[in-house]
Amino acid sequence: MKRKYYISRPQYFMIIILFFFSVTCKEKYALPKTLIDKSYLVVEGYIDGGNDSTFIRLTRTVSSADTTSIKNESNATVYIEGEDGQSFYLNEINPGTYAGGPFSLNQTQQYRLNISTGNGKSYLSDYVDIKQTPAIDSISWARTADGVQIYANTHDPQNSTTYYAWNYHETWEFYSAFYSNWEYTGSPDPDSVMVRRTNGDSLYRCWQSNISTEIIVGSSAKLSEDIIYLYPLILIPEASWKLQKRYSVLVKQRALSKGAYEYLENMKKNSEQLGSIFDPQPSTSNGNVHCVDDAKEIVLGYVYSSTSVQKRIFIERSQVQDWKYRFSCEEVSIKNDLDSLADAFAGNAYIPTTEEGSGPVIARYKGAAVYCVDCRLRGVHEKPDFW
Amino acid sequence: MKSSLLSILTLFLLLAGTAASAQQKEVLVSGDFYNMRAKEFVAELEKKTGLTFYYDTTGFDTLKIDISVKEQPVTKVLASAIGDSIYKYTLYNNLLFITKGSPVETELPEAFFVAKAVSTDTGSKVKYIITSIEEDSKPQTTTPENKLFEVGIKTSAPLSGTAKLAGYVKDISTGEPIPGAAVFVEKLKISVNADQFGYYSITLPKGRHLINIQSLGKKDTWRQVMLYGDGTLNVDMKDHVLSLKAVIISAKKAANINSLQMGVEKVDIKTIKQIPVVFGEADILRVIQTLPGVKTVGEASTGFNVRGGSADQNLILFNDATVYNPSHFFGFFSAFNPDVVSSVELYKSSIPAKYGGRLSSVLDVVSREGNKKKITGSAGIGLLTSRLNIEGPLIKDKTSFIVGGRITYANWLMQFLPAEYKKSKASFYDINVLLSHKINDKNDLYLTAYMSNDRFNLNSDTVYGYGNKNIVLKWKHVFNNKLQSIVSTGYDSYGYTIYSEKNPVNAYDMKFDINQSNAKIHFNYFVNSKHTLDFGLSSIYYTLHPGSFQPRGDKSLVVPDVVTKEQALESAAYLTEKYNITSSLSVQAGIRFSLYNYMGPKTIYQYADGLPKETGNITDTLQYNKGKFINKYFGPEYRLSLRYAITDNFSVKAGYNSLRQYIHMLSNTTAIAPTDIWKLSDPNIKPQYGDQFSIGFYKNFKSNTIETSVETYYKRLKDFLDFKSGARLVLNDHIETDVFNTVGKAYGVELMIKKLTGKLNGWVSYTWSRTFLRMNDSTKGQVINNGDYYPANYDKPHEVTAIGNYRFSHRFSLSMNVTYSTGRPITIPIGRYYYEGSYRALYSDRNAYRIPDYFRMDFSMNLEGNHKVKQKTHNSWTFGVYNLLGRKNPYSVYFVSEDGIINGYKLSVFGAAILYANFNIRF
Predict the structure, then answer these.
(1) Residues B523, B527, B530, CA angle at the centre, nearest 5°?
(2) Positions of E strands within B4-84
């Protein structure tokens, strides 16, 4: 009896064994050392339409090979010009930084920036409206797997703001690993070579601060109400020293015009967010400042006008669960004789901390690397006034 | 017994020159034969008649003869002597055969090889056949190649004029048609290619011809035909099975010289499976990318650029269904399941008039037809993908099906990606269903259904998904040998969905899709040996949803943003005439007239004349109702190609093509990315137009075993879209404000040397090509690079590819694949400036610089088990190394502002050599 096979011949049975060493790979790529013959004007800042001063920063682009960090544009004449013909002059307070105000600008007027540079060229921005910035509802934060994420929350009941920009100034309190009771004087006299330190506190408790270096812009254009909810501003990375004790951030919020939002968004895309496989090709786009004498000249920057609001929050380490920060330092033990002390402390690489034992005669001192003891190497001792 | 008898009886039919006729006069015999052994009796008869007798001695020896005859035909004598109940007697010229059971046929019967010669007699039952005279006792196989097929009504009158020969070329073991098989008569330099159903039609002068039939992966074959009139000749081809005792048959592979087409590349699935690929999975598009004139922007992309065209200018057809996104899994896999594909053809310059709608090329992927004889299946299990295919007859020899599917489980692969992609997920599947039904000899039905789906997220909570859906129904009708038609109708769809639900307030669904319903009617009319006509009509109705942004979940505050859908009708009529002026000069001229209507309902913005299309310059907003024709574009497209054969193995071809493309892909990236959208031409966005001049020289060496070619082209583009800096392409109601029209030019030279036979085979190709775009009209927006020509994103001037395979023995071979190309252009930061607390990059002119050159070498080694055709399992090992040198080829170079400093990074998709090993079992 023959059996009938309906699937008489499975043709392929394939097993693939694969070995991978690595798949995708990202490595540094040196910028081509090409020089540009032109140096374009960069206009940064906004016209403050509220009670704050206006700061306009003028710089120039530098070629990639140029080691100059920032090329400031000094000796320019900068003023805010109203549609009604009123002018408000800004003075150069630092090289390239022009400030003035607060000006009582007419909220119903449009204003523009008028710049005349030292080389005799004139630049004008487009006229812009003064946008009113709604208050920050709250700056909230959450413990996440990656650290502490800080968010902005705001809304505009009038539904007219839509585009927002933020920047922040963060400050945190931190401590050295060891308190220093002693100071090494280097004196040849064994009695005065070690003296009790009087400024121990200033080595032990410090503050550091940092300002935002990225463009943070957000939009509620796609929402039915003008609400920004949990907009991520800052991520304090897991185990960061910023939360050794106490952390504070001052968040400033400004309303943006649609053009400014798009310009900043594009700048952000082109300089911060590139790198995934589907990213678009980068480009530099022109802002709303134009050279009067040469329409083709590239001018970077987008001038807008708005008011500014701010909010500060504090985060204690105790509020954050399971913060893993640890400052790894070790103490060494030094015999109390001139040669040993000089070996240890003379170069200032090590700093004495405490004496060993409790007898009347100090047989040995403890010391630690200066980095572990003197917090001023990583910050300042002066307590900020808001602390 | 039978076989031994047959072995004695083997005869060489062709000795007689033509087929023997039965009306032979028999020799008469007289005499007395008493008490004779059969052997002696036969010897006596041989003496008396002068005939030679053939018979089986076994069982014949014991027979005793007692007979007396007078003037009797020899067969009658035998009948009365031995009896005619068991033994039969056949006289053939001067040979006499004594067989047991049934007589010997002296002519090859009709239908014995399935191949059918119209005029051959039918009727008699077949048991034995004379094929050749061989005195040794080895069995000889009869082959249709030895037979003379008589086609038409046999006549002894002198033959004049021409006749039409048509039929199907099929695989002998599965009954599947062999599309694209070359059918040619070398002496006359007449060649045709079988269509996608394996149907061919050739016009030849009446008389005797040797017709060659060749197809990739099949054993070359030929038929001897005596052509008396129009008729049918079906041809079965065998798979090219390597025999251990190799017989080298050097048939002339002259198809490239004789074919009228230029700029056509055809690759069959066997070649595709031989080439080393990254994960050991045969990949059609990867192989296409090694051909001259075809470029790719990088490894993680299956989008390709043909002769300076963009990725959206390729019409990708799967059994005539348009596939919008041909890639899976970030482009690491192509969307075509290698198990259901039979061949792939790429037209890059002579695009037949029946195709239209894209500027650069047509990639025609043709599936197999299911096995019509029995149910078979195949399955594959891999670490990344698994496959299952079942095929077979639904009604034997009439209806067959293939159902094939692939699925992946690539999530584990993600842990090998850099940390920033580690939480990514990816998966895909695709399903093919193919049915073919033979209604009768004149009518066939074909159904193709295809569906693919991809889903992934790149280390974020945003999930991307995209998929193709296609269905095509085709009816093929043969009116007669001269006229046949194909009517087809189908529906193609492509769409993507992106969603995110982590933040309940911002949770959204974003969608895009493009759908097309199409209908086509195509006729083939073979007028005579000099003229062939192709004509037809086609129509496509597009429905496109440019984008929707919807809230996901109850808490979402996302305001629905839906860009209103677009619809358009694209119709075309075409006519192609192929004219063989002389045997060495032929011309193919085609015209296609296409008409495009953009239809309502839609809101159209009007912009101020002479001002850039920007939102600020909108002067009016026009509402159009449903079904209303908003505007139309139309125009002729010319397709012309010429061939002149200077010698038998040297020809020159030239062509001119013009094409119109009514749909555009909008993409800021150079590859086909899942977030790319398509846009229909509308009053503000003009269709693209391109034309191309090309000329090619083809020369074969060493009995046509080495093919060489040089092709050069110059191409012009009009109204090709490029994007403004920072263009917003998604959810944009007025795309025209973010794009600009460019004019483009592309030119290049393609060299190719190909050797597809012998121990060492493979090809080497070199391409030099440039592609430039220009935007210099300041009334249309910001001019790019001061209005000068700038290189397109995929402009890669030099490219060399070598693919080689060396067979040390029949069980061991090595394959090597070497690719070099110039890096593609990028816009790089030429300077920096300080803004918002950080250094920012100042970018150069568009595409003014290039990423580093690309160089890669792959290697694979095939070890095969024994080659017995009949055994339970066939196994083989393949070991391979992809990117042998471990070179970190840049996929892209990008610049990031980190901690206030601009850093450049080079991203390589494969940063090291990748080893793979496949173990294959076939049973």
Answers:
(1) 125
(2) 11-12, 28-37, 52-54, 64-73
B90 and B127 share a domain? Answer: yes
Nearest Cα to Cα of residue B573 among B537, B519, B533: B537
- B901 and chain A: CB distance < 8 Å anywhere? no
Residue B914 lies in a domain: no
User: B74-82 and B38-49 are packed helices; what angle lies between their axes, rounded to 10 degrees?
Assistant: 170
- The CATH code of the domain that includes B182 is 2.60.40.1120
Count of C-beta atoms within a 10 Å radius of residue B808: 10
Judge whether B566 lies within some domain. Answer: no
> Which chain B residue's Cα is nearest to A63?
B831
Task: Report phi then psi at B91, rounded to 5.
Answer: -105, 130
pTM: 0.66
Mean pLDDT over B592-605 rounds to 92
Domain encompassing residue A200:
134-255+308-387
pLDDT digits (tens, 9 = 90+) for B149-205: 888 777 777 777 888 888 888 888 777 788 778 888 877 777 788 877 788 888 888
pLDDT tier at B215, thresholds 50, 70, 90: confident
A224-233: average pLDDT: 89
B198 and B169, same domain (yes or no) = yes
Instruction: Tell me the per-residue pLDDT of B728-771, one tens digit each, with 9 for 90 and over.
Output: 777 888 888 888 888 999 999 999 998 877 788 888 989 999 99
Question: How many distinct structural domains can be found in chain A?
Answer: 2
Residue B148 carries which DSSP code?
Answer: E
In this structure, are A145 and A99 located in the same domain? no
pLDDT-based confidence at residue A254 (cuts at 50, 70, 90): very high
- Please give the residue range of the domain that contains residue B77: 2-133
Inter-chain CB proximity B843 and A7 less than 8 Å? no
What's A197-256 look like in SS3? CCCHHHHHEEEEEEECCCCEEEECCCECCCEEEEEEEEEEECCCHHHCCEEEEEEEEEEC
Identity of residue B34: Y
Query: Any CB–CB contact under 8 A between B135 and chain A?
Result: no
Give how far A159 is from chain B: nearest CA, Å: 13
Q: Examine residue B438 and state whether it is found in any structural domain, yes or no.
A: no
Distance CA B351, CA B226 (A): 35
Q: Do A9 and B907 touch (CB under 8 A)?
A: no
